[in-house]
Design a protein that fits this description.
The structure is a single chain. By secondary structure, the chain is an alpha/beta fold. The chain has a single domain, classed as Aldolase class I (TIM Barrel), CATH 3.20.20.70. The protein has 13 helices and nine strands. The chain has a nine-stranded mixed sheet, with helices on both faces. Strand 4, helix 5 and strand 5 form a beta-alpha-beta unit. Bound molecules: iron/sulfur cluster (2 copies). One iron/sulfur cluster binds next to loops.
Length: about 375
Amino acid sequence: MTLTPAVRRFRSYQRRIRQARMVARAIKSKRHPILAHIIPMRRCNLSCGYCNEYDKVSNPVPTAEMLRRVEMLAKLGTSIITISGGEPLLHPDLDEIIRGIRSQGAIATIITNGYLLTPERIQQLNRAGLEHLQISIDNVNPDDISKKSLKVLDRKLQWLSEHAVFDININSVLGGGMAHPEDALTITRRALELGFETTVGIIHDHDGQLRSLKENERAVYDQILRERKPAMFAFAYDNLFHKNLALGQENEWQCRAGSRYLYICEQGLVHYCSQQRGYPAIPLEKYTQADVDREYSTVKECAPFCTVSCVHRVAMLDLMRNQPREALTRFFPPATEGGPPQLPAGVQVLTKIFLPPPDGQPQGAAQKVVAGAAMKIFGVK
Ligand code: SF4
Ligand code: SF4
C-alpha cells in the first residue's frame, strides 16, 4: 500500500495556508496580479480540433528567459504562476522553471494533457516543488476532435493517484453539441473516485465566447454539480457563472484581465488571455504598475459571454473585496427569500473575522484585533 495519498492530503493542508495567504493579500490590495499563465513553448504533441493555442514547430523558450519572466512577474507581485502551453511537459527544463517559481515565493502550477506522465516524471515534479496540476479530459474514447480521453489517460491518473504529492484537478468539458455529453459525468466520477478535485468547463469558441448548452448537456451538468464536493468560494462562483452560461444567459461581472490576471505568450508579451491575444500585447519587461492599475478598470466587451473560468475566479476575489456581503449572497443564495445566505462553516468563520457587522456599524475593537492577528498568521502586512 502506498503512503502517497496521505502525504498529498498532509501537503494539501500546508498548501491551503499558502492559498489563504494569497487570498488575504488579494483582498488587502488590488494592485498586483493574482494569477499569471506563462507559455514555455507553443508546441504540442496533440492537435485537438477546437484548439487555437498550439503549433507543431516552435522551439522551447530558453530556460534563462523563462526564469527572467518569472522574476519579472514576481516583481509585479504575482501570487500564482501557471505553466501552460502548448504542452509544458515538452519543455526540457520544466522542473527548473517550477523551482524558479517556488524560489520567488509564488504558487507553482501546470496545465498539461498528461500524455508524457510516467511514475518517474511524477516523482521529478514532486521534487521540483510543483503544487497543483490540471488535466482537461474531453471524452471517454478518443475521436477525430480530441484524443484527451479517459481511456487513454486512465493509467496516468492512477499513477498520479499513487505518486503525486501535489494537488490534482481533472477538468471535464460540456457543450458545442458534443456526441457524448454523459462522458463528462463518467470523467468526474472517476476523478472523484481517485481522490482528485474536479471542475467542468463549457466549450468556448475561438474568442472565448459561449456556445450555450443543449438540454441533454444541461442535465449532465446539473448531475455533476450534485455529485461534486461541497461548495467553497471557487466552486460556488463556478456554479453561478457556469449556470448562467449553461442557460445561454450573460454574466454581469468585471473582467480584470491585464491586471489581476496576465497571459504571457511564448514571445514574452502580456495579453488579456489566451482568447484575446493582441491586447494590450506589451512586452513583460515594459509592463508596469501603471498598466496593472489601468487594466483593473478597463471594460472588456467580450465579458458577458466569456467562458475563461480562471479569469472569472480571479474576479471573484475582487467582488469579495469590493462588495463582500452582496458577493456572499450571490454565491450562496438564501434558502428563503430575504433570509441569510447559506454559508459553509469555513466561510462563516472568515466572515465573522473580517467583515463589518451586517447592521452597517464599523468593526469593533475586539474584531479588529482578531482580524489583525489573522492577517499576521497569513503573513500579510
Ligand atoms: S492538448 Fe491542449 S494545447 Fe495541445 S492541442 Fe489539445 S487543447 Fe491544444
Ligand atoms: S472577458 Fe476577459 S478573460 Fe474573457 S475573453 Fe474577454 S479578455 Fe479574455
